[in-house]
Amino acid sequence: MPLVRLVTVIGVVAFQCGPVQADGTLDIEIISPFSMSTEIKGGLPSCGPAFETALEEVKHDYPSLNLSQTFVIDNSSPIEVDCTRLALPSDSQVAEYFYTKRRQRPIEGRNCWTLFILSGCGNSLPGIQQFGNGLNKVVLSSGISSEYLTDKSQFPTLLTTAVSPFFMSYNNAFLKLAQLYNWTTVTVLTERGGPNSNGGFESQGRAIFDVLSKASPRIQTYFMLVSLTGPVTEDVLNAILDQFTASSRIMILSADSLPTNKLLIQAGARGMTKGSYVYVLQAPINMPFDGSRLRNISDEYHFEKARKIYPSCLMVGMGGEREFVGHEMRPSHPFVNIWKEMSKKMYNYTYPLNKQPPLHAASSYASVVIVANVAEELRRQQPPVDFNDGAFLARQFIGRTFQTKIGNVSFDKLGQRIPQILVGYYDSDDDKFVPFMSYEPSDKSSGLETLRPFKWSLGSWPVPSEPGCGFQGLRCTAGSVWTSTIVGVVVVVIMAAISIYWAVKRLLYYQRLHELWWNLNSILLLEKGEDGVPGWAF
User: Fold this and answer.
1) Which of 172, 247, 275, 331 is surrounded by the fewest CB atoms within 10 Å?
2) In angstroms, rounded to a whole number, what is the distance separating the alpha carbons of residues 263 and 266?
3) How many whole angstroms separate alpha carbon 40 and alpha carbon 46?
């Protein structure tokens, strides 16, 4: 019997958790609302094979767990959707399925665990999380989550295995970077929405600005919201750069590679990429900054021009095993070719050339394996665990590290996956960003760790966040005027002192002459006679 059931929200599925098993078997029901879209990274054609692999693995490794998964699909939703629209079934559709469409409702009890695992995205995601949390069921996101995840007082059952930059720990990496290099003035520039970012970069940029602006000691932080994804003129780019140069020398760009490249190329044309400015990039969602020399020169992303500017940039991105991971799995991972073949066979989806399964697939696999790991532990506990208590069950994941075939997965105190965050410089020879520092937020480590020596080929490092003469050059001008004034005053005083000295000396001389004109020495009045004897001379 297949472990994965594919149903629509108006269909019927048979699943039964079953009565108490004498042999201690634990029934686990996973309900997964999904989209069939191939345009989103968490769609079923991409993540379905990962779930299937995990279920087969659990069946083999945990014979006492009777685990099944149901995918709830809204067939009325278009296949080609993105995260800005209804990519998942609505929360009301999920509720309808949960309450009325299961042919045999599971017998809720101490040996039956029902939970939700979500891998997609869409504007219905928060509603589904609210619904599952309201039922006191574990809701585990293996794709994009929401801000509800950080509010454990109201949403104690939410967890995520996703490696995502949209977490507070990722934002804190920018703060650590600024504090390390004593950058006291920083500009955060972010793209307004855009067809590729789905608004994610804008919210990310605002979050980074919020972290920096509240820092202590104070960091003067400026926020710039721009629209560069579409057609843009040089005048617009120059206006942005003029505003930047008037207030900072450090820019954090929360934008995809297309708008980022446009701004960097214009900065290069103005001579702003020769070591006096630093541009801190986020790892892009679509076209990566790396490997640009492999791209066509006519590509709209202008990588051939932009790559000449990258030496003036740092990149902050997610990592694994101290290497940037991007948004796709590494081609060398043994699951990649297996899941590609399964996508083609099960969902009639063929991956484009040089495209790999998304990280959502890896985190989807990890979700099921980790649930099985926790379930096996709890199944043996005495007294028996109440599997209806989702808040209690969610706490069994927090603060722990689980080993899986896609790498270790660690949860923080909020139920978020602890990411490895890397800071890299651009290596022109290899045409890639090379990590030289890592940030893994935990109780044991709260700072940036050096991985290798940093190479900055554009002069002295670190680059100061403010020019020595100030942003308008007035500090040096004022200093020069003050210095000149002091020197002038000193010279005048010295000359005046010399003049006074000689004037006083001359005055005293003449005074002495007038005082002594009558005091004649009698010897001087004697005149020698012919015989040499002094005599009076009249």
Assistant:
1) 331
2) 5
3) 9
Position of tokens 């796709």?
328
Residue with tokens 């001008």: 477
CA distance 226 to 262: 12
**Which residue type, as a one-letter code, is found at position 27?**
D
Q: Grade residue 518 by pLDDT with cuts at 50, 70 and 90.
A: low
DSSP 19: S
Q: In degrees rounded to 5, what are phi and psi of residue 285?
A: -85, -40
Cα–Cα distance list, 526 to 517, 522, 531, 536 (Å): 18, 7, 14, 5
Phi and psi, residue 126, nearest 5°: -60, -35
pLDDT at 199 over 80: no
The CA-atom distances, in angstroms, between 323 and each of 403, 422, 455 are 19, 8, 17
C-alpha of 310 from chain center:
18
Could you tell me where the DSSP H helices lie in 383-473?
Answer: 390-395
Residues 6+ apart with CB under 8 A from 259: 191, 194, 226, 228, 229
Query: Is pLDDT of 231 > 60?
Result: yes
DSSP symbol at 480: H
Predicted confidence (pLDDT) per residue in 74-128, tens digit: 766 555 455 545 456 788 888 988 998 775 555 554 478 999 998 866 667 788 8
C-alpha distances in Å from residue 309, one per residue of 189, 303, 425: 17, 10, 12
pLDDT band for position 242 (50/70/90)? Answer: very high
Confidence class of residue 423 from pLDDT cuts 50, 70 and 90? Answer: very high
Which long-range CB contacts under 8 A does 396-403 form with residues at least 24 apart?
Answer: 397/159, 397/370, 402/366, 402/369, 402/370, 402/373
State the Cα–Cα distance between residues 339 and 47, nearest whole angstrom.
9
45-49, 388-392, 455-459: least confident range: 455-459
Q: Of 511, 424, 407, 464, nearest to 182 (Cα)?
A: 464
Give every CB contact of residue 8 below 8 A, 6+ residues apart in sequence. 72, 73, 74, 75
CA atoms of 409 and 93, how far apart (whole Å): 31
CB-based contact 2:59 (threshold 8 Å):
no
73 and 45 in contact (C-beta within 8 Å)? Answer: no
Instruction: Please say if the pLDDT value at position 29 is more than 80.
Output: yes
Q: Which residues of 282-321 are buried (b: 16+ CB within 10 A; e: fewer)?
A: bbbbebbbbebeeeeeeeebbbebbbebbbbbbbbbbbbe
Which pair of tokens denotes residue 53?
């692999």
Question: DSSP string spanning 94-147?
Answer: HHHIIIIIBSS----STTEEEEEEE---STTHHHHHHHHHHTT--EEESS---G
- Structure tokens, 44: 């079923």
For 433-470, write each residue's pLDDT tens digit. 999 999 987 655 568 999 999 988 888 899 998 887 77
